[in-house]
Amino acid sequence: MTQTKSLIDENGKRTDGRTETELREIKINVGVIKNADGSAFIEFGMNKILAAVYGPREVHPKHMAQPDRCVLRCRYHMTPFSTDTRKNPAPSRREVEISKVMREALEPALMLQDYPRAAIDVYVEVLQADGGSRCAGITAASVALADAGINMRDIVAACAAGKINGKIVTDINDTEDKEGEADMPVAYMPHLDQVTLLQLDGILDDKQFSECLDEAVRGCKVVYEIQRKALMQKYFGEETEMKEEQ
Amino acid sequence: MTQTKSLIDENGKRTDGRTETELREIKINVGVIKNADGSAFIEFGMNKILAAVYGPREVHPKHMAQPDRCVLRCRYHMTPFSTDTRKNPAPSRREVEISKVMREALEPALMLQDYPRAAIDVYVEVLQADGGSRCAGITAASVALADAGINMRDIVAACAAGKINGKIVTDINDTEDKEGEADMPVAYMPHLDQVTLLQLDGILDDKQFSECLDEAVRGCKVVYEIQRKALMQKYFGEETEMKEEQ
Amino acid sequence: MTQTKSLIDENGKRTDGRTETELREIKINVGVIKNADGSAFIEFGMNKILAAVYGPREVHPKHMAQPDRCVLRCRYHMTPFSTDTRKNPAPSRREVEISKVMREALEPALMLQDYPRAAIDVYVEVLQADGGSRCAGITAASVALADAGINMRDIVAACAAGKINGKIVTDINDTEDKEGEADMPVAYMPHLDQVTLLQLDGILDDKQFSECLDEAVRGCKVVYEIQRKALMQKYFGEETEMKEEQ
Amino acid sequence: MWDSLSKGKRLDGRNLDDLRPMEIEMGLIKKANGSARVRLGNSEVVAGVKVETGEPFEGLENKGALILSAEVLPTASPHIEPGPPDEETVELARVVDRGIRESEMLDLNKLVLVTGEIVYVIFVDCSVINADGNLFDATSYAAVASLVNSKLPVFEIRDGKVVDTGEKQNSPITTLPVSITAVRIGDSILLDPTAEEEACMDARITITTNSDNNFAAVQKGSTGTFTLEQLKQIAASAKTKGEEVRNKIKELMKSGQ
Amino acid sequence: MWDSLSKGKRLDGRNLDDLRPMEIEMGLIKKANGSARVRLGNSEVVAGVKVETGEPFEGLENKGALILSAEVLPTASPHIEPGPPDEETVELARVVDRGIRESEMLDLNKLVLVTGEIVYVIFVDCSVINADGNLFDATSYAAVASLVNSKLPVFEIRDGKVVDTGEKQNSPITTLPVSITAVRIGDSILLDPTAEEEACMDARITITTNSDNNFAAVQKGSTGTFTLEQLKQIAASAKTKGEEVRNKIKELMKSGQ
Amino acid sequence: MWDSLSKGKRLDGRNLDDLRPMEIEMGLIKKANGSARVRLGNSEVVAGVKVETGEPFEGLENKGALILSAEVLPTASPHIEPGPPDEETVELARVVDRGIRESEMLDLNKLVLVTGEIVYVIFVDCSVINADGNLFDATSYAAVASLVNSKLPVFEIRDGKVVDTGEKQNSPITTLPVSITAVRIGDSILLDPTAEEEACMDARITITTNSDNNFAAVQKGSTGTFTLEQLKQIAASAKTKGEEVRNKIKELMKSGQ
Hints:
The complex is a heterohexamer, with 3 copies of chain A and 3 copies of chain D.
Chain A: E1 26-30, E2 38-44, E3 47-58, E4 71-78, H1 93-106, E5 118-128, H2 133-147, E6 157-164, E7 167-170, H3 174-179, E8 182-189, E9 194-204, H4 206-245
Parallel strand pairs in A: 4-5
Antiparallel strand pairs in A: 1-2, 2-3, 3-5, 6-7, 6-8, 8-9
Chain D: H1 2-6, E1 22-26, E2 34-40, E3 43-54, E4 65-72, H2 87-102, E5 112-114, E6 118-130, H3 135-148, E7 151-158, E8 161-170, E9 178-185, E10 188-191, H4 195-200, E11 203-209, E12 215-221, H5 228-254
Parallel strand pairs in D: 4-6
Antiparallel strand pairs in D: 1-2, 2-3, 3-6, 5-6, 7-8, 9-10, 9-11, 11-12
Helix pairs in contact in D: 2-3
């Protein structure tokens, strides 16, 4: 994140034409995988990501079962064709880490004690990766968990903010991630007002840190509205969405 | 299988001197591995292949056991020195696939329901590979299973046919496999008149397809006679074979 | 071990200034790892090696447990920064072999029948490797086992002898190992007068073989004294050692 | 199921030789050099093509390298565990590969930069997203369609190094291989089996034909047997039905996907 | 523990924002290009730097390559099994790496021999010897101290080959990243947690600052949550406490270690 | 067994220092550059030599590379599971390798094409087909005999590339290393143990001598001990018995195998 090209033009527009606080286009389809107990497909800018949920179900191997709660397992995985250079199919250390933080970001929203001795598996498959695939993956996974009917305290919405050309901007894209100065992915539960994921790559001073965190949370709230509509559309049909928009 | 060199000369002879319908020389020795419950060593052209059978025996891990039948497991494996270029000792995808089709080719001949909760392991070790090693391996393995005293409905014999210089020929060798137009390995139970393996690599039209299949089955019947003699020689001695040949 | 440079100078001194029968400086600290049941840190020339013992404790997986005795497990492992060229973190075949001979060298001294169904784990971690790391590792491990309070018949002390410039010398160092003519690591129980490890790399005639073996055993006895003092110092304090030296 | 089959009908109402409805979407993965998503009934596969340069395979010094992989994602069914490909998935990848390779769908001779040293390396990676039977054909169609959809970067050698000129070229496609999979259940032969039908099958066979309607590859699977007559009957069906699928792909090509 | 925490005290007598005693020893591994051993309470880590040459990473053709690994040795606790790194150890390595990489502690631009072809490859390998909580910070301090301690071989290109001149140079260090880890237990925020405290934690966060006292990297962990206020409060502590640790490392540097 | 041993006899009728009957067949694998099959009692091993070119090992820039592997095939006994080599098989390979390497059986200095860059790489791969004790010696004899049987391709450097001239050369063999393995059962020392004897052994030792009848390699194994006297006694037997085996191999060489 050293040499900063001009990532904001004279009109205040970013490389993909967005304003500083604008999110990329987001589409979520619920229930797209027939065999899964819950699923969602998200397009978040150029990200195309599937999330499938299986469970609550029996745990294998059995010794992993917990007597008082459900085990949540999570896998973030990129298909070989999802990245600019072909991704080696073997799981990378990056995928292992994201799987872990993704699980930790989703778990606070789930009532796992309602399903003792069971497991819930969340599989996030990146078909096309753009900047922010972990946020898009968490967002899709949370919708898929709702679609699976898992008891939840809240929905987890995720969005990054970051710094480019010295300015705090919302929802960092691929170019901004690579050439910008900082990227801060955040996952957030809007009703409980709690942060479930926070990472930072890049340099921020005191003021920028606060500003960036606040802006990421604002982005999460925008994302949450889209999650909510996608779920309502699935369960109450197109009409409901119409009403929402009036 | 693109550029076809002349693989049949003006006298109708193939690169190793055989006629179109002639099989390579085949020798089978039964009971060659002291520790195994059944075993056979086959020389099929330049192929040198060992097959050893262990079982019926207890299954490990136990959860793999089937309450109503025996589990058949099969491994096709090439030694590092068996091929023109040294073979990496790690199992290749080709070996994994051949292990699978070999098991599926052998299983129809076995009375697996006679051995509930048990396992039979078939290990096929290629010491020297020539064209047609999977057919030679299946042929040896079936003899080894008989040598182990497993209850069988039939013997499985295997032989390929193929196309070189536009003609259907029996028992494709290494050069013909690499430079010819098609290779069709077949495994067959002569008494039950059933095909247990069929693969094809290369281009055949309608007529050639039928002709090739029929010719491979004819080859299997020739192979079967050699299997039968090898088993008789083991159990009734040299003399028996003499009588057979009269 | 082909071309022998001059490894002994005109004064009979070796490359590190030692005489032919002199061992490198050896320091042993007992109880250095807080969480372990027993531990020792050895500096043996430039070798810096940690040994930690966990157990006797429950065996995982359970089917490995022995009804009449304790299972001894042993791992010899080099950190990536311990060698001249960075060591790949994956266990090498050398490490696998040394783990095995190390276990076999330590086991004769242990009263394993005193702990049926349990396991003892010995972890030897090479932080810096010099010639003779297996001998140093065995020496440290035996002290760590004593520190863990395991019932023992004897302490195992280890030391190599070897041949450089045609002469038998004690405690081969790295240069002598690489450029000398023979290296013979030996582990030995001084009270029982029994050899528990013997290896040889390099050429020795009859006489040299005997001489080398005897010299290695003499080295083991020197090592044993240092082990004994380290243990006494831990359990009876500085003063005890003082008395010993008077 | 047996009752139904004895009347020549399947549980989902199809005739024994009916294929399920098929949908093909091409070009959905912009970061890939080619891509396709195929739905065959409820089975769904995404395939992507990625192009690099590298050394040719040994013994094939004058040909580009084609490397096909398949994985059944754990999203696809409750029975899939994440991890390295099992025996069935290895067979899936090899059978799909064999159809493409043996039909010579890609003219690999045109994908050489320096004979014996640098060639195009074409990766075709197939991901099964939902599994409801006949993954062989669904994956094969996705792989073939992703190649049909693919544009290759134009590489050149300049000063001994590979340079991506930034231009694109059509992939050198010579034929369209199409596989048809049949299973035997008792005496009935069913095409394009569902997962439910595969659970009851005695034997399986996959037959690939090329655009000349010749046979290019065959793979028999499962632990049952076929008679010679059954095999020849299925071979005939593979030609008829394969042509139907091929025409569908050709239409998509014409429609500019 | 809860009783104690409600009174603002910890089981080992520390205040909530006290770090444990720390010891750093540099240069203990003579065969490494740099090394350090850190004791943070009873947690103990050894890190070693090894330098080689190799190809740069893709997309980073004009930078040296930094490769950081971490392993928790089975000596470290009764709960560690030997074997490839688990999820937690992968996270440990990546968080320590991130602090060093994002702060640009090493000026990787100075570690290039031939742009795009040959660069310095700096391995920093960290081995946890004893584990008693807060491995993130203990490992981070060991890695940073081993780099501070490191001297790099001077490589040159002669006749197209890499030659080790036998000379040494200082590592191009630009800043000292320091991580501070906090955990939340109920409503209390504790810095530098012990293993016992980690066993009770609701959530964890690691914040790395650089020598300018700006933030360079953050990693939230564990399955609990933080409020925005808590996060901002911890960020402030990370600056204050990070500066204390940084001063300690600076003193060691001056004292010539 | 103990009764028998106390009378100096073994269950198979041998004296304590008798080896089992041995058969060596050379050249059975035509596709290998050298090969041998050894039967030692009921233990049976096939070894094959394959020759390639590659980079020398680090620190051995002026020597060809010798790489020896061993695997115990699952055909060999009911107790072998297929899979990567276990601890015992790793030891087997390393002990066989050590005998060949330390005796300098092959003059690796003669197997260099370009110092430090391209050398002959000699693979010796050993497969145990049937296991009935003393795999160390059976495998060692097979490996040595396969090298004795080997002819190496003549490689040349032309225009900076390795070319196989199609010609063959004798392998540069300088000595014949022969290992003798003994086990201690109680107070008895038995040579060439069967599997049954190994199941009762207290300790094992393998001693390799070269053609000058000097010692070249030793490996003590198993969890028992030896006295110094026992070790010296076994060393003497290893010389006498090793010479017998060596003469057998020499005869085979003369007979033109």
